Amino acid sequence: MPVPSASKTTHFAQFATTSRLLSCLVTEGLLHAYMQPLSNKDEMKAVCLIYYNEVAELRPEVIHSVIPLKGIPIIDTNDVNGLYKVELLDPMDMLPAIYTISSSLQSEYKDTTWIEHGYLQWKQATYNYLLSKLPGLSKSNLSDRIDGAGLWTSFAEKIKVSAPLVDQIAKELNSSIINQRYIYEHPRSLPSFKSSFIEWEQCVFEGHATHPVTIIPGQVGFIITTSRFTIPPMPSIEGDDYDLAHPNIRIAAIPRSSLILTGSFEKLLQPMMKIILEKTNNVPDSNHYALIPVHELQLPNIKHLFKDIIILPEDCSVQAQALTSLRSVVVPEIFRDLSLKLCVGMKVSSAMRTITPFTTYFGPRFSEHVVPRLTINKQILQIERELASACYKHDDFDVAKHCSCVVRDSFESRNEANGETVVVCAALVEKCQTPDSNVSLVENVWGLDTEEKKIKFLDRYIKLSLEAFLPPCLHNGVAFEAHGQNTLARFDSKTKELIGFTIRDFGGIKGHQETLMKSCGVKFDVLPDSCVIAEEIDGVYKLLYHTLIYSHLHRLIRVLGMHYNGLGWSILRRYLKAMIPQEHPLYKAWLLQSGIPGKCLMQMKIDELYRDDVQDQETKTQDATELLNR
Fold it and tell me: Which GO molecular function entries does the Swiss-Prot or TrEMBL record give (predicted)?
């Protein structure tokens, strides 16, 4: 497939990261955006002015950046000096251009040969609008400024973020841009409906729709967090430095006195260990040591932190295939029905991709005692249980999380053998492997080339997704983290019709103990201070809204062209009204409130938080009524 020029891929890589950065800063209320619709009928529908402060003054020194928009974002309909306050700014609202007002021309473009006529029109329209409000503006004052790290720094210095943190986040943003560009320049072949589940897992092209340093594109088709921000002693990783699609799984021998095993961990992994140990006669005494699989990239952290761990020789390894999340892998030659979740010391959003003792303790217990009692339709929803785990025994959980492992169900191969096509949901909304494509994989592979076909597909998708995830929330007070990375869609391999879903990963779910006990007779068994406990039932509703509605269905509605016209949201609202009893508190939480506080991803980074969510109680970061009524 043809690859755009290096200058063009650099531009789109910068925009992929920077648009997400500005989306977060505006939606979380850290910057303030105002929008002015334009009367012209071309691709550019409005101008968005992003301010350092909340007062919409047309003075260059208070304007952070200016963005041409291709759609009208969610706004406060009360105008301020003819401008409308933007409540939720999505990267898909933006055209791929960002400007700043400067004292002199500071265009970042050295090679302009790739710039198409549309880009010149957007800039001219933006300049004309600004000139009407700022008569003293000259054309050279409107500069192309799409550099995410520079725009982050100009914001962060205004609010006095500490210099080390400003520098760290700037490095993460630059890492995102560098690796996103690599993906654009090494596109993977388009998947087909006959592609295997692992091919779909490894075809995510851009990834997380709003977080600037959690974009999840792939390295030669593999899905990895673009930032790949490693912390010493791990080496930095960029481009094709390491084949993350096929990591080597090494073996660590850990003193039994230093290890916490849950479930039948060693028994489940026995087939792997048998094959690997045939390569050596030098194995530590099994009476004193237990063996656990380790991601090869994690070895420097393990050697640095744990002095009593023995790493078996390099030939005592097996190659795995990575799933979307980077740290989860399958080894189909050995395990048909199991996958492994491993630690990798890369920083993504606010967290290392490690596995905390909270997760290794909770997952197997939730799987054994709670999952069988949940109210679910087993024909529509499959739950991949976490069967066993291992974690280093250490009082400091920030140390222990660097040496742990979870063994969980993997139904994908079995489902394929039974006539299903299994697709990680995040892949459905990806572009067709070129940065300037406006066609998604779901449109291309399912042949959704008319509005009628799109409506039919979306209607069934929304219906089944709600039938899958609403019942445990409504009846048991349990919300799965049903975003696109954790959720797999199952299609009939002959008809292409959606059958149902599979859900995996329990580290981020929410449960309300009182509701669970009343409906199932059990409670979550957790370590103290576990973040999966919702003190109020409203916390369960917020989690499911954020993951299923905002992060999952919202993206599908947008790529199918049913966001701005409201068709997708009317379908969703119709099914919500039919499935949620009016007397149930979820009905009020989702269908009657003006908004639902959302997860503030950049604020969490600024505050250096991970397990403790930041949710904006004042700004309606995810305006439920506005979205559902569109």
Answer: acid-amino acid ligase activity
Give tens-digit pLDDT for 285-332.
999 999 999 999 999 999 999 999 999 999 999 999 999 888 899 999
Q: Which pLDDT score is estimated for 3?
A: 59
Give the Cα separation of 432 and 17 in Å (integer).
18
Give the confidence band of 80 by pLDDT, cuts at 50, 70, 90. Answer: confident
Residues with Cβ < 8 Å from 32, sequence gap 6 or more? 26, 50, 51, 52, 53, 54, 56, 85
In Å, how far from its chain's centre is CA 444?
Answer: 22
Residues 557-578 pLDDT 10s: 999 999 999 999 999 999 999 9
pLDDT of residue 622: 46
- Buried-state track 12-23, b at ≥16 Cβ within 10 A, e below 16: bbbbbbbbbbbb
- DSSP conformational letter for 440: B
* Block residue for tokens 């993906």: 183
**Domains by residue range for the chain, with CATH:** 6-160 (no CATH), 182-369+387-406 (no CATH), 413-629 (1.10.510.40)
* CB 617 within 8 Å of CB 597: yes
Q: What sign has the CA pseudo-torsion 482, 483, 487, 489? A: positive
In the chain the first and final C-alpha atoms are separated, in Å, by: 37
Map tokens 């979740």 to a residue: 341
What does the block give as tokens for 555? 């993206």
**AA identity, residue 318:** V
What does the alpha-carbon distance between residue 408 and residue 505 come to, in Å, rounded to a whole number? Answer: 9
CA 128, chain centre distance (Å)? 37
Alpha carbon 221 to its chain centroid, in Å, reads: 17
Q: What are the tens digits of pLDDT across the range 20-35? A: 999 999 999 999 999 9
Query: Count H helices, E strands: the chain?
Result: 21, 26
Distance CA 247, CA 228 (A): 15
Sheet containing 321-322: order of strands: 259-262, 386-392, 404-409, 338-342, 328-330, 321-322
Cα radius of gyration (the chain): 25
Helix axes 163-185, 6-27, angle to 10 degrees: 140
> What is the Cα–Cα distance from 142 to 137, expressed in whole angstroms?
8
Taking the C-alpha atoms of residue 107 and residue 236, their distance in angstroms, rounded to an integer, is 30
pTM, full prediction: 0.92
The predicted pLDDT at position 619 comes to 37
How far is residue 478's CA from residue 510's CA, in Å, rounded to a whole number?
A: 6
Q: Are 571 and 520 in contact (CB under 8 A)?
A: no
pLDDT at 425: 97
Q: What angle do CA 523, 527, 529 make, to 5 degrees?
A: 100
